[in-house]
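Handout, page 2. Input:
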Amino acid sequence: MGAEVVETLRIIGSIFWPILGFVNMLIGWFLWSLKGRFPSAERVASLEDRMKTVETKIDNMPSTHAMYSLGREIETLHGDVKSLKTALQGFDQSTKGIQRQLGMLIQHHIDLEKKS
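Output:
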């Protein structure tokens, strides 16, 4: 019976070692192929820097309430500008009348100069 056990172990050993080598090769190939699927440490660091930059920009953005308030102020300013425009147009009409009268006065003095 001892010889049979030794012979069985020799047969198993002759089959086991090549199978074990093949399995190790498969594991090695699998791990090698996974290497390309994960980013490198430099890539991760680069992405972390970009993410920090974006987070900083987002943190510095005005809030919804601030944007709403700004919109209201712009609307108020728009109304003020419109009223100033209207006032300036009225002022322009007033100055046109003064310009016309001043022109007539200058023309009168020029005519007086010519007569004398």
